[in-house]
Amino acid sequence: MTGQISQEQRDQLTADLERVRRQEALLVFDEFNEDTALRLGLLIRSKAAALGQPIVVDIRRGDDVIFFSAMPGTAPANSDWARRKRNLVNILHEPSYCVGARIKLGSNILELMGLGLRDHAPHGGCFPIRVKGAGMIGTVTVSGLPQRDDHKLATDAIAEMIGVDLGENGF
Q1: Which terminus of the chain is less hemmed in, N or C, by CB atoms within 10 Å?
Q2: In CATH, what number is assigned to the domain containing residue 151?
Q3: pLDDT for residue 3
Q4: Residue 69: inside a domain
Q5: pLDDT means per 10 residues in the chain (171 residues)?
């Protein structure tokens, strides 16, 4: 996964990391329950349908599944990618996109922690669900699009639900 990247790619990843850090600060729910998960999951699914893209959406509170949808055109591999992304976020408490970006920039936390790729995917699409006063309580994972688009779909839907304009903080 590591290798030489161009200065343009390095600049894009660095800018993305800054945006995602701001997204993390902005995208915090006042509360999150089963009804919130249902609305969020359906919103993500409808956004994917409008794009004509099949995805898997997996929303968890801890290890409990509170929303799951596999759209027609997905495969079991999409669910496995979601599992692997979620595992990474659950152990690091940060978006999976950030981990992958930092690896491309030369900082491989997976190697440092001895985390295998079979169970941990440093690819965008899993975002921590945070609640004011409680911190990270779960995850929302999208799988089926290029990783940056998976991340964007999740964060755009969260922003829409909680009434946050990501503006320059979006992708």
Answers
A1: N
A2: 3.30.450.150
A3: 60
A4: yes
A5: 80 96 97 98 98 97 96 97 98 97 94 95 97 98 97 98 92 84
Quick one: 157 exposed, middle or buried, by C-beta within 10 A (0-12, 13-18, 19+)? buried
- Burial tier of 55 (Cβ tally within 10 Å: 0-12, 13-18, 19+): buried
Residue at 103: amino acid letter: I
C-beta separation of 38 from 67 below 8 A:
yes
Angstrom distance (rounded) from CA 34 to CA 94: 22
Is 2 within the bounds of a domain?
Answer: no
pTM of the model as a whole: 0.94
Beta-sheet pairing, 126-131 with 64-70: unpaired
Residue 1 lies in a domain: no
Residue type, 132: K
| Amino acid identity for residue 123 in this structure | H
Look-up: residue for tokens 């099949």?
A: 54
Handedness of CA 55, 61, 63, 68 (dihedral sign): negative
